[in-house]
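Case study: 4-deoxy-L-threo-5-hexosulose-uronate ketol-isomerase.
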Amino acid sequence: MTNPVSTRYSSHPEDFKRYTTPEIREKFLIEDLFKANELTGVYTMEDRLIVGGIHPVDHPVTLVAVEQNKAEYFLERREIGIINVGAPTQISVEGEIFDLGHKEALYIGKGNKEVVFHPSSSGATYLYYNSAPAHKSCPTKKITTAEAEVVTLGSLENSNHRTINKLLVASVLETCQLQMGMTELKPGSVWNTMPSHTHDRRMEAYFYFDISENNAVAHFMGQPDETRVVWMKNHQAIISPPWSIHSGAGTSNYTFIWGMAGENMDYGDMDAVKPTELR
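Here is what the predicted structure looks like once written out:
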């Protein structure tokens, strides 16, 4: 069986400055996340996060160990967070069924051997996931948007009015190191995570969705004094190293999922960068 997860290596910020646009896209952009009846992903050396998608169409998809795990089963030494970006579906964990609605999240802790993702009976199933190494087991738990910690930031005047849904974060449930949430841009707003920031003690991955066919998002990355842009479409993700900013501006409003792994789980642990300081 072909390994469904590829590997991406870490990059030094000084090397990044010399990358061409195709090289940046090859090393950081994840374009084909959803393949019928498969689990796909990228194992990044940035805090060893796995970023991927699960797309059951006409039969269930089972979470199995991949080559990078060097483990008997996927969650032997890992935890996983899943956010449903498609139709309502079901996930079974050690035989327990979890109904997962659109934009709802499920956290599954270390040590769970049997995880099965089922096709939806009412539409296309698209499950986005992040998985991080874990040294302890935390309880499996579903989180709805009503149970999330919700923060509204920005303003229409600054084109960054947005709602941040902190779904799988330390203030909502116990995890080992993984943190995930979802930010929804209000109509008329296009900027996410602006003013921008970096956080040296954790990496981040962004997944963009709710982008119509004729629109796109310009994702900005790099050190604050020398940034680059990657143009992204619906259902694409991007890896953000700890030294990089991670902001985006779309040609219309959209939604994105952020996921983090690393040393610190404090959401506010970041180094802010003013828009006037960006280069």
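For the exam, be able to explain this: Residues 187 and 253 are 6 Å apart (CA to CA).
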